[in-house]
Amino acid sequence: MELEVRHLRVLCAIADTGSLHRAARELGMAQPSLSTQLRRIEQTLGGQLFVRTRTGCRPTPLGRAVLSRARPLVSELAALVTETRAAAARAGGPQLRIGATASRAIPGWLRRLRARTPRTEPTLQMDVSANSLLRMVAAGRLDMAFVHEVEGSPLRVPSGLCLRVLVEREPQFVCLAVDHPAAARHEVRLRDLAADRWMVDSTVDGEWDALCRVLRAAGLRPDMLHGDYLTAYSLAATGEVVTVSQPTARPRSDLAVRPLLGDPIGVRLLLAARSEDELNRGYAELEEAYWEAARQAPAYREWLGRAGAPGTAGGGAAAGGGAAGVTGTADAAAGTGAVDAAGARVPLSSPAALPRPDGRGGRRVPAG
Fold first, then answer.
1. pLDDT tens digit string along 194-239?
2. Among 78, 23, 94, 18, residue whose Cα is nearest residue 50
3. What's residue 334's pLDDT?
4. Looking at 79-83, 152-156, 338-342, which range is the least confident one?
5. How far apart are alpha carbons 349 and 261 in whole angstroms?
6. Which of 47, 105, 172, 265 has its CA 20 to 30 A from that of 187?
7. Which are the contacts of 179, defined by CB distance < 8 A and separation ≥ 6?
């Protein structure tokens, strides 16, 4: 076997994550395939590159020597690809390449982008992995990406990216059959679902771990099934499972979408790009599209009103603050809690973590 750049990327990923399991997820590979590839690389180079322990992997002296040469090569190649793609895009005319994890805001975002720049047709790359999309932005394959960061599972943001927070903490709801006894409640208690099986898409970065943490904290040990959310919603409609749902999801005649009491699961919504100028190309349209989707979701609209969101029934006109519109590097956006008008941090559970209506961040959500 001849050593290739993709093999060097494998070695760097294992060293950076300290784990074959995490490296496999980072690279979008199955762990057995990654283990086999590592063995072949070690056979090609003639020695062991990593020591495997119960706590992970660490480079051997030979591994450190190889990594010291591999990292500059991988970095230089990534820079070459990024610069070449940027040059090709400039030569080919105006383009806007966007990526996103699943969201009800996507159709409205595309519609608004087309209306703002009629001569530019935005392209869309969907992926369940926010980390994969961020790497694509950093590599120049996307201009920007709208991603979800699950609470308790920080995203691995490549250096040099700029982030803007759309919503500091979006609560995650539960989706269940419309005739489920808990569907009669405005807010569902986790203990009301103690006898149910959950289906979760474990390929969504951080989602499986977040739900397991929440259920363990509630003293629950339900059966957990792996599956994509299209399948999960179909099974939920028949009462086979319950599943996590974004609050912007619209109810169906056979499904109910309800908040969880205490909002135990949250995500942060981010727009990422390589520069402030790139962020400005799509943020305002994304913001409008997200709150349009929120207005069309009765359960979310009701939740926002109870939480005291500005412009909703139950919310005062001056109530809002939020991290929507907070801009900076990955380091600046990595804190917990939103930023109020004075620049102070506020708890994620505070109504002040909802978008502000004063033009500095997310738009208010009108009642209706």
1. 999 999 988 888 999 999 999 999 999 999 999 888 899 999 999 9
2. 18
3. 35
4. 338-342
5. 12
6. 105
7. 239
Which residues touch 11 (CB under 8 Å, ≥6 apart)? 38, 41, 49, 63, 66, 67, 70
Contact 140, 275 (CB under 8 A): no
Going by C-beta distance under 8 Å and a sequence separation of 6 or more, which residues neighbour residue 173? 244, 245, 246, 247, 249, 257, 258, 259, 260, 299, 300
| Alpha-carbon distances, residue 179 vs 176, 182, 185, 253, 310 (angstroms) | 8, 8, 11, 10, 33
Q: Write down the pLDDT at residue 327.
A: 39
Tell whether the model's pLDDT for residue 163 goes beyond 70. yes
What is the predicted pLDDT for the residue at 86? 62
Beta-strand runs (E) in the chain: 50-53, 56-59, 97-100, 123-126, 144-150, 162-171, 173-177, 198-200, 224-226, 242-245, 255-258, 266-273, 327-329, 338-339, 345-346
Which of 367, 350, 362 shows the shortest CA–CA distance to 291? 362
Provide the CA 79 distance to its chain's centre, in angstroms: 25
Report whether pLDDT(247) > 50.
yes
